[in-house]
Amino acid sequence: MHAHATFQSIYRQNSDLIIYNDLKDDPVVAAFLEICRLLGERDTRAACIAYPPADSNSAEALAAACRRFFRLLADYTELYQGPFTGDPWQNYLLDRIILAENTFTLKAGQIKWEFFSDALKDAVGQDLRHLQALAGMGSAAYNAALARLASSTATTYDANGATVFPSDQLSVPDWTKLKPLDPLQPLQPPQVVRKEIKEKLLAAADWGREGIKLLADYHRTWGTGIFGMYWAFRWEGGPAGGRLVGIDRPDPIQLSDLVGYEAERGEIIRNTEKFLKGLPAVNILLYGARGTGKSSTVKALLHAYGAQGLRLIELPKKFLGDYQEILKILAPRPQKFIIFIDDLSFEEGEAEYKELKYLLEGSLQVRPANVLVYATSNRRHLVKEFLSDRAPAADREVRLQDTVQEKLSLAERFGMTVIFLSPDQEQYLNIVEELASKAGLEMERAELRRRALQWALYQNGTSGRTARQFVDYLIGEQG
After folding, report:
1. Residue 236: which of 314, 184, 166, 160 has the closest Cα?
2. How confident is the model over 272-296, as pLDDT tens digits?
3. What's this model's pTM, rounded to 2 decimal places?
């Protein structure tokens, strides 16, 4: 059993971290440090005893600290469906260490470990050794708290004068027995990588020597903070400003799942690969009929190139005005970002199209080299135009043609427009046949084609989406 001096040392070391100092302000970490602080207090009247009898006040404070820690850790652990590693406390602390953004992690994302200063290496190594000791104290702290509380002989009384025994008043739930949910789906690639680094850290003998190199390599390859934890994001606005929210399970569509439009997708893939290599690449407008796979093509890029540093950010049209705030967040990162604007068009009176023009080109703030914009639309010119726009009335703008040209120029701001034409009947049937073959469906070709045409007639016409919906229906029918 650990003596009080061990907890005292753990508390002092982790309350004064150098590079990872922000961790001490995390609510769960702060709660655990408070337990260590209370366990580190020594009763000078019983100096020879590892856990001297606790007085009423200190026992109540320790029990309250333990219950608070349990409550916070349970909130995180019991609904957890990510890569769980070690005991509940170790899993939580490892997640916080990997998610941390500080001088070390941000620099690790920019340069190789060999080019770090010795001073920074020493400071990080010292912090990580202290954190390693902290990570190993979950069970020890619980057992020590039980022993301390069991030694309490204080007796108190309730409002009716009945005796309240310490075991009733100072019970502490066992946080080492908390269990996460079983993942409902397989771990996503970023989660698999996070599980690997957590397991390697737990197996490392010295975080200050082995762990620091493991973390540096991880951040160099996968990024820091939420950019290492997620590959896909959604921009959410709010009264206090916008923020990036990670998407745990992005659309699983793969490029290999898409049928037809190989030439069109090839243009987008080649542009994306140039972008990832640091070569000149352009913003792309994917224009065409609904259901032709425009959005799916962009989403599939994430799974094809996420391991190479590609990140996808979904930006709703109504938050286009936040683009400067978004670019400030993305510019210093080593990853490559595609800002994805889906189903883009503007109605009469909507002025957000001007913000998009600034984002594409034309603003005083230059778009960073690690950011591109990919947008999909069913409308070639994006901004709805009326015949009245071209026929000036007495109360209309004098130089109306300037306004018309401003609207039409929006699509031209994209460096490339890739057109997804609606498939004809034969192309639609070819897509159905290939999807059915990939799904392993057994049906006579003539019957498959007959039913596919019937489905298109009563559903949404001939499109790639209609073909996939029809094949999904057949899978369910035969299943």
Report:
1. 314
2. 999 999 999 999 999 888 888 899 9
3. 0.78
